[in-house]
Amino acid sequence: MSYLRNAFEYLESAASRWPEKTAFYDDVRSYTFSELYEYSKTAANGILSEIGTPSDGRRFVCVLVKRNAESLLSMFSVLCSGYAYVPVDDSSPAERVLDIISQTSAAALVYQEKTKADIRAAGSLCPCLCMKELLTRECPEDLSGASRYSVIDTDPAYAIFTSGSTGKPKGIAISHRALIDFTEWMAGLCDLDENDRLANQAPFYFDLSVKDIYQTLRKGCTTYIIAKKYFSFPKLLVEKLNETGTTAIIWAASAFRMTADSGIFGIMAPETLRYAVLGGEALRARHVNIWKKACPGLEVINLYGPTEVTVDCTYYRLDREFGDTEQIPIGKACENKSVVLLNERMERCGEGEIGEICVRGSGLALGYVNDPERTSESFIQNPLNSLYPDRLYRTGDLGKAEDGNIYFVSRKDDQIKHAGYRIELGEIESSLQRIDGVRASCCVFDDVKDEIICFIQSDLDTGDIADRLSQILPRYMIPGLWKKVGAFPLNANGKIDRKLLKEQHADETGR
Question: Most exposed of 4, 224, 332, 384 (fewest Cβ within 10 Å)?
């Protein structure tokens, strides 16, 4: 593709190349590329006639999103107007919506006609614009063209909010350049074209969905938006994958795991699937093997990265067979990104030494919206370079380099002090995956009782599991309390909700 400076140009190009081809659809409606483009321009003109053009300090428009195609139209309409979109879960409490509007100094809130969120309170902070009305509004001139082409590639394209450790959500602003660079790199990584059909799993307020959205536009794919209910019924899910002729999935590893563990592949399997691109949390070899047995020839790619680096910063193409208990690496740095492991002295780690995963490159976020203090804590001057400004993002994740690849170890804040030893809870979980019969595990630490608690999915006796684990790890790393669970609670991003598990344990013990 020619040089791009605005991510909306992906839709503009797609509408020119594949005008009548279906781009996105759900169980209710669909949009061709040309429909998305024309409707986006109409709605963008409506947005601009209401709130005017973007200006310094006034760049964001919040969008209440559902799991439907209209949500994407809303996001593209904001992008077309020259503003950056902020996707917010339509089912969010009103307080959270207001908090995000306030933090972003949002110029407007765009919502669908049938929305769950209470938008009445939002009207006191910014104009609330209904998509149905924006699409029927007549505008005598094209306001969006001039506004959009005034945007430069270092302006924000979107901001995604994630949960913050302080209890206040943090908004991560991503520039057009970062988004374009990532999309172009991924276009080379995945051999997709206009004949491919994707099945979207990640909600649009989760950055993993960025891959589905922009690969669809970049490659001319058709993407079906899977309703959340299907993931509770594996048989219906696989039937839907076959009905839609899905050839590629770009999913969270948790959804991939749950489908593998459901046993559905003993009954039926995805018939047309050839690509599985996975991320969000650790990918386990056992689950890959279950899928590959059901889908011979399936190509699997493991991606890693926090939202702050524009979705992902490392990749590993599984080009060999892995034993069920082997750890899958997160691989090497994506193009135009550099991954550095730093120890506690902020020095480069040696081979096999555990250190914090830090990232440089064009994919770094602009920072946290309206939070310069947090931005300066996480986005720092590269301690290995004192010659010129060189931004480095500290992920808070620990990893190690071996055999030319990076391996994820654990979250830095999952490091505990127990029995006088520093312990990575992630190392315990990784070791448990090496035990046949353990499907999944999650360890938390009870700092009151100074006890490691392991929540586990397995049919094995927990005493047997502890004995086998003691053959891998030293005694002080063996959990003191084991709790079997049928299913793990998941947070909004589809990851195991460790905080909730810890809270539930505290409630059970009366603390």
Answer: 384
- Cα 444 from Cα 431, distance rounded (Å): 15
CB 184 within 8 A of CB 176: no
Task: Give the contacts of 218 (CB within 8 A, at least 6 positions apart).
Answer: 1, 10, 14, 183, 184, 187
Q: What is the DSSP string of 435-484?
A: STTEEEEEEEEETTTTEEEEEEEESS-HHHHHHHHTTTS-GGGS-SEEEE
| DSSP per residue, 288-329 | HHHHHHHSTT-EEEEEE--GGGSS-SEEEE--S---TTPBPP
Residue 260 half-sphere exposure toward CB, CA atoms < 13 A: 23
284 CB-near residues (< 8 Å, 6+ apart): 253, 257, 328, 433, 440
Q: Which two tokens stand for residue 92?
A: 């969010």
The amino acid occupying position 35 is: E
Q: Which of 39-43, 148-152, 227-231, 387-391 has the lowest mean pLDDT?
A: 148-152
Give me the residue label for tokens 């279906």: 22
Average pLDDT of the chain to the nearest whole number: 92
Q: Which residues of 342-367 are buried (b: 16+ CB within 10 A; e: fewer)?
A: beeeeeebeeeebbbbbbbbbbbbbb
Q: Which helix (H) or strand (E) holds 286?
A: helix 285-294
Identify any residues that bridge with 415 across adjacent strands, giving them in sequence order: 424
Residue ranges of alpha helices (H) inside 174-271 are 176-189, 209-219, 234-243, 253-261
426 vs 223: CA distance, rounded Å:
34
Radius of gyration of the chain (CA): 23
Q: Which residue is listed with tokens 């080009």?
A: 319
Tokens read off for 348: 């480069």
Neighbours of 263 (CB within 10 A): 10
The DSSP element (H or E) to which 6 belongs, if any, is none
> Which residue(s) pair with 410 in the sheet?
398
- Enumerate the β-bridge partners of residue 208: none
Residue ranges of domains in the chain, CATH in brackets:
33-151 (3.40.50.980), 336-410 (2.30.38.10), 419-508 (3.30.300.30)
What pLDDT sits at residue 493?
Answer: 67
**Pick from 291, 294, 293, 341: which is nearest to 313 by CA?**
341
Nearest CA-CA partner of 145 in 326, 9, 270: 9
pLDDT in tens, 73-129: 999 999 999 999 999 999 888 888 999 999 999 999 999 998 888 888 888 899 999
